[in-house]
Amino acid sequence: MDTLTELNRKGYIEESIDPTLDLFEEIEKLKKEKNAIVLAHYYQEPDIQDIADYIGDSLGLSQEAAKTEADVIVFAGVHFMAETAKILSPEKTVLLPDLKAGCSLADSCPPHLFKKFKEKYPDHLVITYVNCTAELKALSDIVCTSTNAVQIVESLPKDQKIIFGPDKNLGAWVAKKTGRELVLWNGACMVHEIFSREKITKLKERHPKAKFIAHPECEESVLQMADYIGSTTGLLKYSINSDALEFIVATESGIIHQMEKASPGKTFIPAPPNNNCACNDCPYMKRNTLEKLYLCLKNGLPEVTVPADIIDRARKPIERMLEISAKLGL
Ligand code: 13P
Ligand code: SF4
Protein backbone atom coordinates (compact mmCIF):
# COMPACT_ATOMS: atom_id res chain seq x y z
CA MET A 1 0.00 0.00 0.00
CA ASP A 2 1.44 3.43 -0.89
CA THR A 3 2.13 6.00 1.80
CA LEU A 4 -0.78 8.33 0.97
CA THR A 5 -3.37 5.54 0.86
CA GLU A 6 -2.04 4.29 4.19
CA LEU A 7 -2.28 7.80 5.66
CA ASN A 8 -5.84 8.27 4.46
CA ARG A 9 -6.87 4.90 5.84
CA LYS A 10 -5.18 5.02 9.22
CA GLY A 11 -4.13 8.63 9.80
CA TYR A 12 -0.50 7.61 10.32
CA ILE A 13 2.16 5.50 8.65
CA GLU A 14 2.59 2.11 10.20
CA GLU A 15 6.21 1.04 10.32
CA SER A 16 7.89 -1.40 12.66
CA ILE A 17 10.25 0.23 15.15
CA ASP A 18 13.38 -1.50 16.46
CA PRO A 19 12.34 -2.31 20.06
CA THR A 20 15.88 -1.65 21.34
CA LEU A 21 15.75 2.00 20.23
CA ASP A 22 15.54 4.64 22.95
CA LEU A 23 12.78 6.76 21.43
CA PHE A 24 13.53 9.72 23.68
CA GLU A 25 17.12 9.81 22.37
CA GLU A 26 16.05 9.23 18.75
CA ILE A 27 13.48 12.02 18.90
CA GLU A 28 16.05 14.42 20.38
CA LYS A 29 18.47 13.53 17.53
CA LEU A 30 15.80 14.04 14.86
CA LYS A 31 14.72 17.38 16.38
CA LYS A 32 18.29 18.70 16.01
CA GLU A 33 18.79 17.21 12.53
CA LYS A 34 15.58 18.74 11.17
CA ASN A 35 15.51 21.96 13.24
CA ALA A 36 12.16 20.82 14.62
CA ILE A 37 10.28 21.60 17.82
CA VAL A 38 7.63 19.56 19.54
CA LEU A 39 4.66 21.51 20.89
CA ALA A 40 2.40 19.47 23.17
CA HIS A 41 -0.98 20.11 24.74
CA TYR A 42 -1.51 19.21 28.41
CA TYR A 43 -3.88 16.41 27.32
CA GLN A 44 -1.10 14.40 25.65
CA GLU A 45 0.22 11.22 27.25
CA PRO A 46 3.00 11.80 29.86
CA ASP A 47 5.86 10.53 27.61
CA ILE A 48 4.94 13.07 24.93
CA GLN A 49 4.71 15.87 27.49
CA ASP A 50 8.17 14.90 28.76
CA ILE A 51 9.80 15.01 25.29
CA ALA A 52 8.09 18.29 24.29
CA ASP A 53 9.96 21.59 23.92
CA TYR A 54 6.85 23.44 25.01
CA ILE A 55 3.77 22.19 26.87
CA GLY A 56 0.76 24.42 27.19
CA ASP A 57 -2.89 25.21 26.67
CA SER A 58 -4.40 26.27 23.36
CA LEU A 59 -3.43 29.93 23.81
CA GLY A 60 0.17 29.21 24.82
CA LEU A 61 0.57 26.76 21.96
CA SER A 62 -0.64 29.24 19.35
CA GLN A 63 1.66 31.94 20.80
CA GLU A 64 4.61 29.51 20.54
CA ALA A 65 3.66 28.48 16.99
CA ALA A 66 3.57 32.15 15.95
CA LYS A 67 7.06 32.92 17.25
CA THR A 68 9.12 29.77 16.74
CA GLU A 69 12.18 29.87 14.48
CA ALA A 70 12.16 26.12 13.88
CA ASP A 71 11.62 24.85 10.33
CA VAL A 72 9.36 22.01 11.44
CA ILE A 73 6.63 22.07 14.10
CA VAL A 74 5.54 18.67 15.38
CA PHE A 75 2.16 19.36 16.90
CA ALA A 76 1.35 16.88 19.62
CA GLY A 77 -2.27 17.84 19.97
CA VAL A 78 -5.30 17.66 17.71
CA HIS A 79 -5.94 18.66 14.11
CA PHE A 80 -7.45 22.13 14.73
CA MET A 81 -4.38 23.07 16.82
CA ALA A 82 -1.98 21.98 14.07
CA GLU A 83 -4.08 23.94 11.55
CA THR A 84 -3.81 27.04 13.75
CA ALA A 85 -0.02 26.63 13.82
CA LYS A 86 0.03 26.30 10.00
CA ILE A 87 -2.14 29.43 9.60
CA LEU A 88 0.23 31.41 11.83
CA SER A 89 3.40 30.01 10.27
CA PRO A 90 2.45 29.00 6.69
CA GLU A 91 6.09 28.78 5.57
CA LYS A 92 6.82 26.04 8.11
CA THR A 93 6.15 22.34 7.89
CA VAL A 94 3.55 21.35 10.48
CA LEU A 95 3.36 17.67 11.35
CA LEU A 96 0.68 15.87 13.36
CA PRO A 97 1.59 12.35 14.61
CA ASP A 98 -1.89 11.05 13.74
CA LEU A 99 -4.06 12.88 11.21
CA LYS A 100 -7.17 11.35 12.75
CA ALA A 101 -6.59 13.21 16.02
CA GLY A 102 -9.75 15.27 15.49
CA CYS A 103 -12.11 16.92 17.97
CA SER A 104 -15.79 16.26 18.77
CA LEU A 105 -16.32 19.96 19.46
CA ALA A 106 -14.86 21.02 16.09
CA ASP A 107 -17.02 18.31 14.44
CA SER A 108 -20.14 19.70 16.15
CA CYS A 109 -19.94 22.83 14.00
CA PRO A 110 -19.90 22.13 10.24
CA PRO A 111 -18.86 25.38 8.47
CA HIS A 112 -21.67 25.25 5.83
CA LEU A 113 -24.31 25.15 8.61
CA PHE A 114 -22.55 27.81 10.66
CA LYS A 115 -22.50 30.08 7.59
CA LYS A 116 -26.32 29.82 7.34
CA PHE A 117 -26.65 30.41 11.11
CA LYS A 118 -24.45 33.50 10.87
CA GLU A 119 -26.60 34.87 8.02
CA LYS A 120 -29.55 35.03 10.42
CA TYR A 121 -27.66 37.61 12.53
CA PRO A 122 -26.13 40.06 10.03
CA ASP A 123 -25.40 42.75 12.64
CA HIS A 124 -23.55 40.35 14.98
CA LEU A 125 -19.80 39.93 15.31
CA VAL A 126 -18.57 36.33 15.34
CA ILE A 127 -16.28 35.06 18.11
CA THR A 128 -15.20 31.47 17.69
CA TYR A 129 -13.48 29.29 20.24
CA VAL A 130 -10.18 28.06 18.77
CA ASN A 131 -11.50 24.47 18.99
CA CYS A 132 -12.96 24.58 15.48
CA THR A 133 -11.84 23.97 11.91
CA ALA A 134 -9.75 26.45 9.91
CA GLU A 135 -12.75 26.96 7.64
CA LEU A 136 -14.83 28.06 10.62
CA LYS A 137 -12.11 30.45 11.76
CA ALA A 138 -12.24 31.94 8.26
CA LEU A 139 -15.91 32.79 8.93
CA SER A 140 -15.06 34.54 12.21
CA ASP A 141 -14.13 38.05 13.35
CA ILE A 142 -12.13 37.06 16.43
CA VAL A 143 -10.92 33.73 17.76
CA CYS A 144 -10.59 33.05 21.49
CA THR A 145 -9.42 30.29 23.81
CA SER A 146 -10.66 29.34 27.25
CA THR A 147 -7.90 31.52 28.75
CA ASN A 148 -9.01 34.75 27.09
CA ALA A 149 -12.69 34.27 26.08
CA VAL A 150 -14.01 36.55 28.86
CA GLN A 151 -11.47 39.31 28.11
CA ILE A 152 -12.07 39.10 24.35
CA VAL A 153 -15.82 39.60 24.84
CA GLU A 154 -15.13 42.44 27.30
CA SER A 155 -12.81 44.12 24.78
CA LEU A 156 -15.82 44.81 22.54
CA PRO A 157 -18.26 47.72 23.03
CA LYS A 158 -21.16 46.86 25.38
CA ASP A 159 -23.77 47.30 22.65
CA GLN A 160 -21.91 45.04 20.18
CA LYS A 161 -24.07 42.01 19.34
CA ILE A 162 -22.12 38.77 19.39
CA ILE A 163 -22.44 35.21 18.07
CA PHE A 164 -20.30 32.77 20.09
CA GLY A 165 -19.45 29.29 18.80
CA PRO A 166 -19.02 26.42 18.76
CA ASP A 167 -19.01 25.53 22.49
CA LYS A 168 -22.34 26.28 24.18
CA ASN A 169 -20.99 25.54 27.68
CA LEU A 170 -18.02 27.88 27.39
CA GLY A 171 -20.35 30.43 25.74
CA ALA A 172 -22.87 30.25 28.60
CA TRP A 173 -20.08 30.63 31.16
CA VAL A 174 -18.65 33.66 29.32
CA ALA A 175 -22.14 35.19 29.07
CA LYS A 176 -22.58 34.76 32.83
CA LYS A 177 -19.13 36.20 33.67
CA THR A 178 -19.51 39.22 31.40
CA GLY A 179 -23.24 39.84 31.85
CA ARG A 180 -23.53 39.93 28.03
CA GLU A 181 -26.13 38.27 25.89
CA LEU A 182 -24.46 35.93 23.40
CA VAL A 183 -26.08 34.05 20.54
CA LEU A 184 -24.73 30.52 21.05
CA TRP A 185 -24.05 27.73 18.59
CA ASN A 186 -25.21 24.41 20.06
CA GLY A 187 -21.87 22.56 20.14
CA ALA A 188 -20.05 20.69 22.92
CA CYS A 189 -17.00 18.59 23.78
CA MET A 190 -17.72 14.92 24.45
CA VAL A 191 -14.99 14.76 27.11
CA HIS A 192 -16.20 17.71 29.20
CA GLU A 193 -19.91 17.01 28.80
CA ILE A 194 -19.76 13.55 30.31
CA PHE A 195 -18.78 14.43 33.89
CA SER A 196 -21.32 13.11 36.38
CA ARG A 197 -22.66 15.61 38.92
CA GLU A 198 -23.84 12.73 41.13
CA LYS A 199 -20.46 10.95 41.17
CA ILE A 200 -18.65 14.24 41.80
CA THR A 201 -20.99 14.97 44.73
CA LYS A 202 -20.13 11.58 46.27
CA LEU A 203 -16.41 12.12 45.66
CA LYS A 204 -16.60 15.54 47.36
CA GLU A 205 -18.26 13.90 50.38
CA ARG A 206 -15.40 11.40 50.61
CA HIS A 207 -12.80 14.17 50.23
CA PRO A 208 -14.33 17.13 52.10
CA LYS A 209 -11.10 19.16 52.04
CA ALA A 210 -10.54 18.74 48.30
CA LYS A 211 -11.00 21.70 45.99
CA PHE A 212 -13.15 20.94 42.98
CA ILE A 213 -11.72 22.61 39.87
CA ALA A 214 -13.28 22.53 36.42
CA HIS A 215 -12.75 23.57 32.79
CA PRO A 216 -15.42 25.94 31.39
CA GLU A 217 -16.27 23.41 28.65
CA CYS A 218 -18.11 21.44 31.40
CA GLU A 219 -21.88 21.74 31.73
CA GLU A 220 -23.39 24.49 33.90
CA SER A 221 -24.64 21.93 36.49
CA VAL A 222 -21.02 20.77 37.05
CA LEU A 223 -19.54 24.29 36.96
CA GLN A 224 -21.98 25.34 39.72
CA MET A 225 -20.14 22.99 42.10
CA ALA A 226 -16.65 24.30 41.30
CA ASP A 227 -14.32 26.17 43.66
CA TYR A 228 -12.41 27.38 40.61
CA ILE A 229 -13.16 27.43 36.86
CA GLY A 230 -10.43 27.99 34.29
CA SER A 231 -8.50 26.86 31.23
CA THR A 232 -5.99 24.03 31.61
CA THR A 233 -3.24 26.56 32.38
CA GLY A 234 -5.58 28.29 34.85
CA LEU A 235 -6.32 24.99 36.59
CA LEU A 236 -2.62 24.12 36.78
CA LYS A 237 -1.72 27.54 38.24
CA TYR A 238 -4.58 27.32 40.76
CA SER A 239 -3.39 23.89 41.94
CA ILE A 240 0.15 25.26 42.42
CA ASN A 241 -0.91 28.43 44.28
CA SER A 242 -3.64 26.91 46.46
CA ASP A 243 -2.93 25.79 50.03
CA ALA A 244 -5.24 22.80 49.55
CA LEU A 245 -3.62 19.37 49.41
CA GLU A 246 -6.33 17.56 47.43
CA PHE A 247 -8.03 18.46 44.16
CA ILE A 248 -10.83 16.88 42.16
CA VAL A 249 -10.08 17.79 38.55
CA ALA A 250 -12.86 18.08 35.94
CA THR A 251 -11.03 18.19 32.64
CA GLU A 252 -9.12 15.69 30.50
CA SER A 253 -6.90 13.66 32.82
CA GLY A 254 -3.64 14.38 30.90
CA ILE A 255 -3.25 17.66 32.82
CA ILE A 256 -2.73 15.70 36.04
CA HIS A 257 0.80 14.76 34.89
CA GLN A 258 1.90 18.43 35.06
CA MET A 259 -0.06 19.04 38.29
CA GLU A 260 1.72 16.13 40.01
CA LYS A 261 5.11 17.25 38.69
CA ALA A 262 4.58 20.82 39.91
CA SER A 263 3.16 19.84 43.34
CA PRO A 264 4.52 16.40 44.31
CA GLY A 265 3.02 16.59 47.82
CA LYS A 266 -0.55 17.14 46.61
CA THR A 267 -3.18 14.60 45.48
CA PHE A 268 -5.10 14.98 42.23
CA ILE A 269 -8.26 12.97 41.66
CA PRO A 270 -9.74 12.89 38.16
CA ALA A 271 -13.46 13.78 38.23
CA PRO A 272 -15.46 10.69 37.22
CA PRO A 273 -17.44 10.62 34.00
CA ASN A 274 -20.94 9.21 33.64
CA ASN A 275 -19.73 5.77 32.52
CA ASN A 276 -17.69 2.96 34.05
CA CYS A 277 -14.28 4.62 33.65
CA ALA A 278 -12.47 6.21 36.59
CA CYS A 279 -11.06 9.10 34.61
CA ASN A 280 -11.73 10.93 31.41
CA ASP A 281 -9.39 10.67 28.42
CA CYS A 282 -9.93 12.48 25.12
CA PRO A 283 -9.86 9.68 22.50
CA TYR A 284 -8.61 12.15 19.88
CA MET A 285 -5.75 13.56 21.94
CA LYS A 286 -4.74 10.06 22.93
CA ARG A 287 -4.42 8.89 19.30
CA ASN A 288 -0.92 10.40 19.38
CA THR A 289 1.71 8.13 20.86
CA LEU A 290 5.47 8.46 21.34
CA GLU A 291 5.95 5.88 18.55
CA LYS A 292 3.78 7.84 16.08
CA LEU A 293 5.57 11.05 17.06
CA TYR A 294 8.95 9.42 16.35
CA LEU A 295 7.78 8.06 12.98
CA CYS A 296 6.26 11.36 11.90
CA LEU A 297 9.45 13.25 12.72
CA LYS A 298 11.53 10.61 10.91
CA ASN A 299 9.32 10.50 7.77
CA GLY A 300 8.17 14.14 7.69
CA LEU A 301 4.59 12.85 7.55
CA PRO A 302 1.65 13.24 8.18
CA GLU A 303 1.77 16.92 7.29
CA VAL A 304 -1.10 19.32 7.99
CA THR A 305 -1.95 21.67 5.14
CA VAL A 306 -4.51 24.46 4.88
CA PRO A 307 -5.66 25.98 1.54
CA ALA A 308 -4.11 29.42 0.89
CA ASP A 309 -7.46 31.27 0.74
CA ILE A 310 -8.49 29.82 4.13
CA ILE A 311 -5.10 30.82 5.59
CA ASP A 312 -5.69 34.37 4.34
CA ARG A 313 -9.13 34.65 5.94
CA ALA A 314 -8.47 32.66 9.13
CA ARG A 315 -5.24 34.46 10.01
CA LYS A 316 -6.81 37.82 10.83
CA PRO A 317 -9.21 36.59 13.57
CA ILE A 318 -6.42 34.54 15.19
CA GLU A 319 -4.00 37.47 15.07
CA ARG A 320 -6.68 39.71 16.57
CA MET A 321 -6.89 37.31 19.50
CA LEU A 322 -3.09 37.27 19.90
CA GLU A 323 -2.94 41.08 19.82
CA ILE A 324 -5.66 41.47 22.48
CA SER A 325 -4.00 38.78 24.64
CA ALA A 326 -0.58 40.46 24.33
CA LYS A 327 -2.06 43.83 25.35
CA LEU A 328 -3.63 42.20 28.41
CA GLY A 329 -0.46 40.28 29.26
CA LEU A 330 -2.16 36.90 28.82
P1 13P B 1 -7.51 24.87 26.72
O1 13P B 1 -6.26 24.36 26.10
O2 13P B 1 -7.82 26.25 26.28
O3 13P B 1 -7.53 24.74 28.20
O4 13P B 1 -8.72 23.97 26.14
C1 13P B 1 -8.86 22.65 26.44
C2 13P B 1 -9.28 21.79 25.30
O5 13P B 1 -10.33 21.23 25.26
C3 13P B 1 -8.36 21.62 24.23
O6 13P B 1 -8.87 20.69 23.37
FE1 SF4 C 1 -11.89 18.35 21.36
FE2 SF4 C 1 -12.83 17.93 23.79
FE3 SF4 C 1 -10.79 16.46 22.91
FE4 SF4 C 1 -10.43 19.06 23.49
S1 SF4 C 1 -10.95 17.44 24.92
S2 SF4 C 1 -9.70 17.96 21.67
S3 SF4 C 1 -12.42 19.91 22.88
S4 SF4 C 1 -12.87 16.46 22.06
UniProtKB/TrEMBL annotation:
A Pfam family the protein falls into: NadA
Cofactor note: Binds 1 [4Fe-4S] cluster per subunit.
GO terms, biological process: 'de novo' NAD+ biosynthetic process from L-aspartate
Iron-sulfur in keyword set: yes
Alphabetically ordered keywords of this record: 4Fe-4S, Cytoplasm, Iron, Iron-sulfur, Metal-binding, Pyridine nucleotide biosynthesis, Transferase
Record localization: Cytoplasm
Cofactor(s) this protein cannot do without: [4Fe-4S] cluster
Positions of [4Fe-4S] cluster binding: 103, 189, 282
InterPro entries: NadA, NadA_sf, Quinolinate_synth_type2
Enzyme class: transferase
Organism superkingdom: Bacteria
Catalysed reactions, semicolon-separated: iminosuccinate + dihydroxyacetone phosphate = quinolinate + phosphate + 2 H2O + H(+)
Gene Ontology molecular function, alphabetical: 4 iron, 4 sulfur cluster binding; metal ion binding; quinolinate synthetase A activity
Function, as annotated: Catalyzes the condensation of iminoaspartate with dihydroxyacetone phosphate to form quinolinate.
Protein name: Quinolinate synthase
Phylogenetic classification of the source organism: Bacteria, Pseudomonadati, Bacteroidota, Sphingobacteriia, Sphingobacteriales
